[in-house]
Design brief:
Length: about 425
């Protein structure tokens, strides 16, 4: 007799799911209310919020809010109906693609309804069973899921280890010469958990010795890094060496969706072969018009990015001066590394939220190794230096409590 899928699920809830009943609505799936910004309500009390990827503060920028409202009033959220290939294309979609291409210095661009889905589908579309993928060990889950769909061979290199990347390229080159396939290297512009930039310049330099194409997920770099905000490739002076560039709209653009930019023929291939876009309804025009306004503000108001980095430098330098370990971050992502169990982490977060009114994300096993706690802070242009100062003061207090054993427990915090 075969097993029952539901019984298997009930028996194994997963490393996070086992805490679902106790954590839901507080540590997991919390409900932040009010206007998006550095001060929002959580369970009836205002909190200083470091948990949103609203890097440039565009979510509630008055021009953005007006553009969103005007577009929704004219078009609603149903237009256009249908997939773009069939009946859902518009001049606005093509205008946004053209403007994004110019912004990231690529020939062409395809809009994507959801960033995660786009990454998975693009990888599946670009490679076949004869091809070989080489990818960074700490790639985002969407990249890993795309790699899992690959029917051919894949080799993983140690995180940001260019020497190991070259070793895997040597293996990939040997195998590809036998299969008649090609090589796709996958990494990130900014790794969203640790905040370190991918070694893009060094990987691009390997093209002098190996024949491969480079796919970069720059979700945390677009709008944030580079002289004009074109991302990690521009920041490192190697944008031209990125063959397939992915940017999300869910972070610095403060919306949803994403885009892929590359050579014109490559984007045309994706446009006619990427299943997640061919068989999905087009992005609503209201969102497209809102994105055009956001891109306009990115291009014309560098002071937004400048303020973001002022806050970032103040936060990161202040944390280090206070003795906190923030690792190798060279982006706005600011992880604070602590040691402790999952129950200790929940007691710490509960204290931080309830008694200090500071809300940030907690990262524990299985996302990071057992015994490690990461408090992940995302500074934005909307934060103030006073917010930074207060947060560092609060962190200094809670870390002393952690070290003295005040958060010690054998079960997660009771809400």
């Amino acid at each position: 007799m075969s097993a029952d899928i539901f019984e298997k699920i009930k028996a194994n809830r997963g490393p996070l799911g086992i805490h679902a009943k106790e954590s839901h609505g507080y540590f997991t799936f919390p409900k932040l209310e009010g206007e998006i910004g550095p001060h929002m309500n959580f369970r009836g009390t205002e909190k200083l919020n470091w948990s949103l990827n609203n890097y440039l503060g565009l979510a509630n920028h008055p021009e953005v809010r007006k553009a969103d409202a005007d577009a929704a009033a004219i078009y609603g959220f149903g237009s256009p109906m249908g997939a773009r290939m069939m009946s859902g294309n518009s001049n606005y979609h093509e205008q946004l693609e053209n403007e994004l291409s110019a912004f990231v210095d690529k020939e062409d661009t395809i809009l994507c309804n959801f960033g995660y889905q786009a990454i998975v589908s693009a990888i599946d579309c670009l490679v076949d069973r004869h091809d070989v993928i080489v990818y960074d060990a700490e790639s985002h889950a969407c990249l890993i899921d795309g790699v899992r769909l690959h029917m051919g061979k894949r080799f993983v290199f140690k995180h940001n280890d260019v020497e190991d990347c070259e070793k895997q390229l040597q293996r990939a080159t040997k195998l590809a010469s036998e299969t008649g396939g090609a090589i796709l290297v996958i990494t990130e512009g900014v790794f969203g958990m640790r905040g370190d930039q991918g070694k893009l310049k060094e990987i691009v330099a390997l093209k002098e010795k190996y024949n491969f194409r480079l796919f970069v997920d720059d979700a945390h770099g677009i709008g944030v890094l580079g002289a004009t905000g074109a991302g990690a490739g521009q920041e490192q002076g190697c944008q031209e060496g990125i063959d397939i560039y992915f940017g999300t709209f869910a972070k610095s653009f403060s919306l949803i969706g994403g885009f892929i930019s590359s050579d014109e023929q490559v984007v045309e291939y994706l446009r006619y072969n990427m299943r997640s876009q061919i068989f999905a309804k087009a992005m609503p025009i209201a969102l497209v018009l809102g994105l055009l306004k956001r891109l306009e503000l990115m291009r014309n108001h560098p002071e937004l990015k400048n303020k973001l980095w002022e806050n970032t430098h103040a936060l990161q330098s202040g944390l280090k001066a206070a003795g906190f370990e923030i690792g190798p971050t060279d982006s706005c992502v600011t992880p604070v590394y602590l040691s402790g169990s999952i129950p200790e982490a929940t007691n710490l977060i509960f204290d931080l939220r309830e008694n200090y009114n500071v809300f940030c994300s907690m990262v524990v096993y299985p996302v990071v190794p057992k015994g490690m706690i990461i408090l992940r802070l995302i500074p934005t242009a909307a934060h103030t230096l006073a917010d930074v100062k207060y947060t560092i003061e609060c962190f200094s207090k809670i870390v002393n409590k952690l070290k003295s054993g005040e958060y010690m427990s054998d079960k997660i915090a009771a809400i």
